[in-house]
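User: What would this chain look like folded?
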Amino acid sequence: MSSPVQLLEPELKTPGLSLRQLLIEPSESTGVQLFRYLFVGGLAFVLDFGALYVLTSRAGLHYLTSAAIAFLLGLIANYLLSRAWVFPRRKMRNTGIEFAVFAGIGLIGLGLNELGMWLLSGIAGLHYLIAKMCTTAVVFFWNFAARKLSLFR
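Assistant: Here's the prediction, encoded as structure tokens.
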């Protein structure tokens, strides 16, 4: 009898790439890393978005304050998952310096996030959660490219 992974592999297989290679084995492929980073970013986004909602709607914080706190929670989750699953090789041996650079890139992403939310929500009048979804795409690609090039080659 075939396992669920064996049943899915023929459909998801591309030349030289199995489901196991896509999801489990360490990979230097930028395409595989981008695919995995999409999931990691998605999980970090769920944490970020959920915290934004709770801190703004339930705790009564201003949406920009909530956005900064929520973004930082997502940043920490993203770092831990990126190290564990997305990027198998690092440029830096010192974890503290690596996290500082990772966080610095995230702070630029936070600036893009805050600017986008301010423009879309504060100026254009969109609901803050819609503004958040719009800014997420820009920040996602910034974070992946900057982290891949500077930290995880």
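Helices lie at 4-12, 19-23, 30-58, 63-86, 95-123, 128-150. If you want, I can go into more detail on any region.
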